[in-house]
Amino acid sequence: MKFCRFQSGGETALGVLDHDTIYDLTGVNNITFKDLNSLYAAAESDVFKMVEIATDGMKKARKVSYSYNLLKIPVKPAEIWAAGVTYMRSRQARESETKSKGLYDYVYEAKRPELFLKDSGARCRGPSEEVAVRSDSSWSVPEPELTVLCDRDAKVVGYTCGNDVSSRDIEGENPLYLPQAKVYRWSSAVGPVIVTPDEIGDPHSLEIKMRIYRDGKQAFQGSTNTSQMKRSVPELLSFLKRDNDIETFTLLMTGTSIVPADDFTLQTGDRVEVEIEKIGALANPVRKLQSS
To answer: What's the rounded Cα separation, in Å, for the pair 113 and 79?
Structure first.
């Protein structure tokens, strides 16, 4: 099932996206279906029961013609975490940009994954909203990532597309600058929907594509498959939960394998599209922040 949040009469409603139709669940019951958090609570933290309740709600729901412009961020995340160097391509890119040679080779092979707090949730953007590059960065790129929605017990609730915008020059200058390269205003986006595990099936066999448009023309395209990810989703979640308190709903970005050429950097006016098989496409315009 594909859950979405969409604009409805000046308010934001919870819906189910089925092909070209959005079923307005909030219009059926604005308590149970206020948002995905309310529905998950009503289902007693059971994903299958959540789908059953939503399926019953769809029988009574108003139908809305799908438009991407109606979509909002599909869930208000408690936090967003991210994993690094989970693909060989990421390992190569991080090694090429850093002055600390050998560091990311070690991270790729190590038993413990690289995990970091990407966002409190408040900085995160949704479909059609601008993502940003830092004012003091001269080399910034988007990173398309399969993103996992989990509850406080690190149980998978669903999957979505993620864009982990990163400043490669700042990160490469010094590994300790990672928080500044990764965490700033509008540095992440997720959406367009949350897809439940039953519809995704195996998360380790999904095609990921990224396209970047500039001045109306395609400036970059790349693709990969989550089968190339060195670490599994359960493994990453187990480390995220270890000795750590997480809340429902926490998002975990699982790393990237699509990296533009070293001479490419995002600019104001660019448009980034992240598309993942069985989920859909997340599209965001880009703006370079002004120094304050």
So the answer is: 18
Same domain? 197 vs 134: yes
Give residue 111's identity as a one-letter amino acid code. Answer: K
CA distance 64 to 57: 14
Mean pLDDT, residues 137-161:
97
The stretch 204-232 carries a mean pLDDT of 96
Number of domains in the chain: 2
pLDDT at 39 over 80: yes
The CATH number of residue 239's host domain is 3.90.850.10
CB atoms under 10 Å from CB of 21, counted, come to: 14
Q: What is the mean pLDDT of residues 186-209?
A: 98
